Amino acid sequence: MTTIETAPPTPPVTETKRVPGQPDMWVFVIFESLIFTAYFAVYLYYRARHEAAFLAAQSHLELWLGVLATIALLTSSWSIARCVQTARAGRYKTAVRDAYLTAGFGVVFMGLKIADWVHQIHLGNTFTSSQFFQYYFFLTAIHFVHLLIGFVVLGVLLYQLSGAERRSQEIVETCATYWHTVDFLWVLIFALLYVVR
Amino acid sequence: MSLPLRDDPKRELWYAWYAAVFFYTLYSVIFFLVTHVQPPGQPWYTPTQVTHWFAHYHNGLLIGFALIFALGGLSATSIALITYSIRRMSVSRAFAYSYLILYAVSAVPGFLFICVAMTAGTFRPDRDPQLQQWLYDFGFLSFSGTMGVFLIGSLIWMTAILLDKNRVFPKWFGYLNLCNALTEVVVAPSWIFYRGVFAWNGLIAWWIDVFVFGIYTGVFLMLLRNMILREDFGSGPLPELPLLARQAPATLELAS
Amino acid sequence: METGFNKRLFIVWIILSGITVLYLVIDHSAEKHGVRTASEVASVSAIVLALIKVRIIMREFMEVREAPRLLCLLTDGLIVVMAIVLLGAYLIGRALA
Amino acid sequence: MGRISGERIIFWTLPAVAIIWILAFCLFPGFLPPMSPTSSAGDVARFYQEHTARVRYSMIVLNWFCVALIPILMLIVERMRRMAHRTPIMRYCMIGVAGAAPIVFLTSSVFWLLAAFRPDRAPDLTQMYNDLAWITFTCGVPFLVGQCVFLAISIGLDEQPQPVFPRWVASFNIVIALALIPAAFAGLAHTGALAWNGFLSFWVKNVAIALWIIVMSVVLAKALQRDVAVAGAAA
After folding, report:
1. A24 touching B, CB under 8 A?
2. Domain extent at residue C89
3. H or E segment and range at residue B32
4. What are the distances in angstroms from CA D87 to CA A58, B9, B169, B254?
5. What is the ipTM of this complex?
6. Where are the domains of chain D?
7. Residue A75 sits in which domain range?
8. Which of A30, A41, A49, C36 is the most interior residue, by most CB within 10 Å?
9. For chain C, which chains pass the contact test of at least 3 CB pairs under 8 Å?
10. Which of A35, A128, A131 sits opposite B192 (nearest CB)?
11. What is the CATH number of the domain that holds A152?
């Protein structure tokens, strides 16, 4: 807060600044990101210390599968961002369509993730087979749990949008914030597991 | 805020709160400093090393766990306070009762088994080292690996807070419950690994988890305190409780 | 007005997907005769690119751009902390290896 | 009246349960006198080989009925509803410990039954089960202590002309709690008063539990009677 008080006065803005969704959700976003940062740091540290073993195991991953999954999740994020804007504009039919699109791309991501797991398990890479795959399965699985919760959150969002008497823009934005968190956590996981050398 | 006074209408809440703080402090001191079971012993110890471990912490283990055996019942106070907090919310009582039962049950695998297993191991240092190792595993794994109650419990509390319209707890604490629930999941690999970051003393399965749990516990104790401070029972005499109170339950809204 | 907003989101999506595809190039660059090699440059740029993507998602998709200053500072601070911790863990690990 | 006669039924299960408990307690060959913590693994194994049947049958019965006290505890919790409290918090404390206490005893009966399940196994293993059973049985008092303390505080807070339970019941519960506490330290001694077969850890603790059940059932009966009278007056 002190930073704000000591900062030079900002030029007047035409529209009022507002926090998207419940400010409370941002506590989750920041706290959960910090927990993940801790997981990532542990992974990167051990990875850097045992580079050769990690590289060898990592070569089993299909980068293009990861890229596809990432783009699917980014697209779902894009859809829910549109959903927030259309809901704000009162175009609820379009908003509902965008919410379903979000869920759809989420399911595509889920399918790609499961395909990736099945592929790795067929190659003999499991949670216990090597250090790299410990982290791989751990990080993708804990993210998967977040994604599953994300579908519950989307359910809440659709419930909000479906009834004229509900339609709380705040809750819609809160749900979207959660979904974007799932998205950006995956962006990090993808870079760290698939690309980092 | 002075210590609970005789006439303080909130005294029973304060007794429970101080007892809860006392219990968590005692619990931390005993587990970290007296018995040295936190941070946990090494999962990769050979049977002989386990026997040495029991011998090394002999007195601390026996005295520390004896204190838990004597005072562990106080764990019910924080559960009762949280149950009460959920009762104050505009949600079904089912949430409150689920929380109460989940955590009442969790006491046995949550801290009683480790006390029994470690006491048994320390009790007979000359026991076959293979069996000592079994007791050691039983102690640590029952303690770390039974997180389901805490997972579901946190989710129940979270849902109640998010649905509540009385603002008993801030919404952000509801979301913090989700963070806590998700770190509980992460302990599960301790059933699989002897060493590394996912073992029962690992960086991820133990250190990060305990850190999050510590913050979570500190936060909810402070929030419970705020809840009690905000509680307004008035300062008048206790409601008259004729023997017919049951017929007129309106006089004691919350006692029902 | 509304179509303008949607165009902005579309451009953001294109940029984010573009960076994702860029990873294929980074990945390819860190190969010698088809053998994967450790590469500090590839790793650091992967982490930095990911953090840039996170910031874009926060600013644009999560609408932090239009939020009060405090939230902008908090989210930017979060990204700085992530950058320091991730790069720090990686580089310290390498130095100790 | 339906509610009160239901509570009477629960109350009158107590003598039946008590008789079953006493019989099972006497049937278990390791209680009278209590087994010694100093016995060698061979002696312990021989004990289970010689008394296999009695250990099994007595512990099966105790395993069945150890949770039978929970309904009685809930009768006490129901009486607490009428105490002059502003919140239900003391009842929640009681419910919180009421379930855990019998489960602790249930666990010890499982260890005893395991010890007797394969009496011919390696004596060391039988001895370990025996240790686990006795330590769980003897040291597992935290929830019983909690019960007494919570009840004592509840009665202390029940400030009304005609309290639900008389004042002295609070003091009585504190005395019982103090009598139970030494048993928690049974792990520290193989011989003497603190050992699991010693004066404090075995005799004082178990007599205290028996006394608590007897006294509380008498007090509870009176409280129930008063409720019947009140309900009759109201009708």
Report:
1. yes
2. 2-96
3. none
4. 58, 10, 18, 6
5. 0.89
6. 2-234
7. 64-197
8. A41
9. A
10. A128
11. 1.20.120.80
